Amino acid sequence: MITKENVKHITKLARIGLTSKEIGKMQKELSAIFDYIGQLKEVDVSEVQPTTHSIILENVMREDKGQASKNAKRLIDAVPEREKEFVKVKSILS
Amino acid sequence: MTQFLNLTIPKIHEKLLKREFSAIELTKSYLERIKKKNKDIFAFITISEDLALLQAKKADELIAKSKKVPILAGIPMGIKDNILIKDVKCTAGSKILENYIAPYDAAVIEKLKSHGAVFLGKTNLDEFAMGGSCERSAFGPTKNPYDLSRVPGGSSGGSAAAVSSDMCVCALGSDTGGSIRQPASFCGVIGMKPTYGTVSRYGLIAFASSLDQIGPITKTSEDAKIVLEAIAGKDNKDSTSIVINKKLQVKNYNLQNLRIGVPKEYFEGGIDTEVERIIKKAIGRFEELGAKVKEISLPHTKYALPVYYIISPSEASANLARFDGVRYGMSKVKSQKSKVKSLLDAYLQIRGEGFGEEVRRRIMLGTYALSAGYYDAYYLRAQKVRTLIKQDFDKAFQKVDVILTPTSPTPAFKIGEKITDPLTMYLADIFTIAVNLAGVPSLSLPVGRAGDLPVGIQIIGKPLDDYEILDIAQAFEQKYENS
To answer: In what order do the strands lie in the sheet with B453-461?
Structure first.
């Protein structure tokens, strides 16, 4: 059972601001979805290895070498608030 | 303008080379059709007219001077709006990216550009590809061209509706749990999800990275093969990309002795009776063509949906952390709930308002499943059951060459019918999800109509058998084209 307190805690972790009405709705919906997901408990997985990717992959290595980006100007231009080349953010410590 | 209706890629190529029409004329006729039809269907979010005309002009120049013209040169395409085209708006169907201009080309776009393809515009989708109906787009729903009161399916509903209503020759979609195949089934077109890794995901706005795959939506299997050949391949910018055996196009693939498995779990309850009748008739036709059909079992089928709704939201919660309003996208909220004093306030408000209901729900779901104390119970367990689902397919493919199932348990449903209950909507993808978890290739082929509504059959292949399942679909198509 997911409580309203659980939901409030998760909104902070997920950085999603919800109104108290939205939190109530989310609590009901998430509870129903996790009830449904609960059927996974009946599967015996004691001898099973987890799958992260369906295709077996070896670690892919490459040389750690810097490359010039052709897109630097476009990337900076996409920043909503900036000063010269710097990205502007609200104060982090309050 | 009837000469520009319902053309396939090889036909257009032939006519362009014979100078029956130019790429510019062709592109203009498609742009006109979009202008006429898009008001009702809303398949396109953005129409990239200037780019399309420029690309068409280049294609004509190539045809004028070159002896070797790529088959995709001058072909008007639609591109799902979660795939980046440099200098074109890319919204992912979300308010948070409403004004985002893509700074670079996705790997698939770079490849299609090198083949001379023409991009007519960006097609509608459920926000961040999360949904099965296209109703979750922040810019309004796409309508099904067969019945405007119904959904086109999702999330690549814009691409499927655009191909179906001939607003483009072919399109790209992306498929995380059925998002290419289910809308293809609803709109009566071919939709294919390649083997995981076949197509580079670089420049696809990530939803669930271990499941996402780009693929073609087309009018014929041959067209799908042509598009797949153009976009497939190893890419250094996507370390999960692989090389698949490229079998050159087999004309007249022989279905004689093809071993087909039909999993009994896909016919147990919850399936529309008309859909069941059409699928069984199609399976019978494969038998008539010489295939050997037998019943098989994929015993963990019923767990695919719950596994998916742990794994995909978990991956999504991490992937969507990048949308913070700091580096790009929406940076100010419209309704100031409270004064934004700190960076944390800004995050909470931008993400609370910028993401739609379904996206917020999935991020919350994934964050909860990955949070301290729950990881083993949810995420790790889901990954283990994923192994069992994959093993079901491995075992089945020791006995059969392909697996046939319905693509969706129902034909296209009414707009508004499933939107209020998230679980009901999730169940619409029940037949397509296991394929993504196992990573195998699969396509939806139209095989009949339930009333006026198209119904597709799903052909699932062994890993790397992408061209084989397209050959099989083509062999079936050639035999039963007009039925």
So the answer is: B44-47, B118-123, B76-80, B170-175, B213-218, B190-193, B442-450, B453-461, B402-406, B259-263, B292-296
Pick among A26, A40, A54, A62 to test the B interface (most B CBs inside 10 A): A54
Furthest C-alpha separation in chain B: 71
C-alpha triplet A39, A43, A44: angle, nearest 5°: 155
Look at A94 and B56; give whichever has higher pLDDT: B56
For the stretch B435-480, pLDDT in tens is 999 999 999 999 999 999 999 999 999 999 999 999 999 999 998 8
Q: What is the pLDDT of residues B178-235, one digit of tens each?
A: 999 999 999 999 999 999 999 999 999 999 999 999 999 999 999 999 999 999 999 9
Measured between alpha carbons, how far is residue A32 from residues B23, B302, B371 in Å?
53, 17, 19
Is B345–A90 a contact, with Cβ atoms under 8 angstroms apart?
yes
Contact between residue B325 and residue B350 where contact means Cβ atoms under 8 Å apart: yes
List the catalytic residue out of B165, B179, B221, B317. Answer: B179
Under 8 Å CB-to-CB from B187, ≥6 apart: which residues? B144, B145, B146, B152, B153, B157, B160, B161, B163, B164, B412, B454
Å between B101 CA and nearest CA of chain A: 8
B165 is catalytic: no
- Here the ipTM equals 0.95
The pTM score is 0.96
User: SS3 of B232, please?
Assistant: strand
B48 labelled catalytic:
no
